[in-house]
Design a protein that fits this description.
6 helices, 3-stranded mixed β-sheet, flat, mainly alpha, 3 strands
Length: about 140
């Protein structure tokens, strides 16, 4: 990465599978985060509250902060981020869940495209002025 012809930009991919033991706790935390967001317009707040109340995966998306992952890493600045959440059927013994295997680049990119700053609110779900979106 130190050669002049190398790009200074790096795409870091992280995939997590989480088990939700307490849906009410996740939903409650998301509702608190929404209530604490003083910059969120009232109409967006009503929509966000409705979405996180109806879908625990969406509530979780409100609580995940990719900026927090790299915020303290010296020498890097996050340019764009996107993330999504969805409820899935999970079988840890199934070969399709082997996270150690390299995924086919084309199939891995599906659903993990970067979110540009000018994407509309509906596509992004919620987000902030830095062009970050959550979609579920």
């Amino acid at each position: 990465m130190s050669t002049p012809e190398s790009s200074r930009f790096v795409r870091l991919r992280v995939e997590l599978v989480l088990e939700i033991d307490d849906e009410d706790a996740v939903t409650g935390a998301a509702l608190r985060r929404i209530a604490d967001d003083d910059d969120m317009p009232a109409a967006e707040r009503v929509h966000a509250e409705s979405v996180v109340t109806e879908d625990t995966a969406e509530a979780l998306a409100y609580l995940v902060d990719p900026f927090g992952l790299v915020d303290e890493v010296p020498g890097v600045e996050l340019q764009q981020a996107s993330w999504s959440s969805e409820q899935i059927d999970y079988d840890p013994d199934s070969p399709e869940w082997d996270l150690g295997e390299d995924d086919d680049e084309e199939s891995y990119d599906e659903g993990y495209d970067e979110v540009a700053e000018d994407d509309d609110e509906e596509e992004r779900g919620d987000g902030d002025a830095r062009g970050v979106g959550r979609a579920g």
